[in-house]
Amino acid sequence: MAEDLNWAVGGEAGDGIDSTGKIFAQALARAGRHVFTSKDFASRIRGGYTAYKIRTSVDQVQSVVDRLDILVALTQRTIDENLDELHEGSAIIYDGERSWEAEIPDEMTAVDVPLKSLAEEAGGAIMRNIVALGAACEITGFDVEYLDEALEKRFGGKGSKIVENNKEAARVGQEYVQENYDLDHLGYNLETTDNDYVLLNGNEAVGMGALAAGCRFYAGYPITPATSIMEYLTGRIEEYGGHVVQAEDELSAINMALGGARAGARSMTATSGAGIDLMTETFGLVATSETPLVIADVQRSGPSTGMPTKQEQGDLNMALYGGHGEVPRFVVAPTSIDECFWKTVEAFNLAEKYQTPVFLVSDLAMSVTEQTFPPETFDMDEVEIDRGKLVDEDEVDEWLDAQGHFRAHAVTDDGISPRAIPGMTDGAHMSTGLEHDELGRRTEDEDERVQQVDKRNRKVETAREREDWDYREFGDEDADNLVISWGSNEGALAEALEYLEEDDIDVRVISVPYIFPRPDLSDEIEAADETIVVECNANGQFADLIEHDVLTRVKRINKYTGVRFKADELADEITAKLSEEVPAQ
Q1: Helices and strands (H and E) in the chain: how many
Q2: Distance separating alpha carbons of residues 383 and 406, to the nearest angstrom
Q3: What's the confidence (pLDDT) of residue 336?
Q4: Which helix (H) or strand (E) holds 363?
């Protein structure tokens, strides 16, 4: 892998940290460099430490690492928070004219730039972060002109004067460092290429996948970190004849989405944390009425309010078992940002083919992380739409009873009944949350109850036979050491292999995007000498599932600090875990 560079900007919430980082990330992507970002932010509008980190290389990068080369520090806390990742070759950009005196270790290069004063010269103190970006461009040998297009995209709606002022701010920052510092000893010189990359985060990929899949109705309630799915769809879905509705709460949101699906539209909702708890009441109604619905849960640290702006994979049991009674459902967990797109498309197909709720489980780290991809990664010609047993007026007669009533809940061998959209001739029917017969009429008849329960459960068995509930694999397929993960840990694991190889440790990695139904890993685990399950929760919810499936104890690596795994950190954890004894049976 080519040498990569790790850059960060930090300060307090309200300092424009996010927009600064995004502008630099977009500029790097436009220069043909791969980008992988990470955010650390407090759950408040102003105040509290916040940071935006970028790892960039001409090769693809899939994880953050414990190394920081360039730091833009707007507060002393920014320096203190990152000391462990700074090294002898690191450069720290700060504003010595501000009221705080920066305490910078002697072995690091201090670059004192009067950010506020230079910004005022360019047109306004608010542009001090752009001045810092210009300074960073000079230190890293990155052409400041690559910032121009990103600045136009960010500020174009505010008028050409604002755009030009920001371009000037970047250049005065670059010139100040050029004229006052000799930083050749740092040796940074960012290579650019002619490659064209798409830069997007996990929530944007989910939104894009929903549009590609034909989603035409979205209902949601704002909640961190799921809100940006709704923000992405707003203004875009309308171009395709769709609608976004902001509901008054999460329960209303899922019920609105359920209504949209009953009307025949591909519908979804998304939430996080306590929001998924509030939606639980409707899970059973979705399943019992056999309505296709996609429910996205962007996980965050819990329980209760927990840490709203921190990472965790703690909702797995909720997705699997949430709701009273027995609720058939599918649970799909994308393992990368590009998979957020493709698994969203698949989730809509599964929902309609099997007329059941599909839980699309992501997490905060993946939702806010921005990564670069070649445009062909999202080839719309590869998107396939499968609406399942959606009957038209020529087929509806096949599903009428002797009195001409449409059997919306007909008992079938595969468990999947015909589906008619309201307004279709002879397709009128009812569905309730009460147990019902084939026509949807309430019943307490024992035989009909058993038939309907078995029919709904049979859909899952049919899906097991028809669908490819597989996994992604990388590393050494013949290795004796097996590491299994789910969700957003895949990128860190893929890069951890490089560190493990340096220590002559061979590992086979299996990354599982399907939680229910899920692949049978019995043979893979039986063939391995050591099996480790990696996940971001305290109790090992996925490891519990694996042990249940294979009746074998596995080793566990669990992180629940609120921060995602880093590649080098994960390599160390795997190395240490391999030397431990397997837990007692």
Answers
A1: 18, 20
A2: 32
A3: 96
A4: strand 357-363
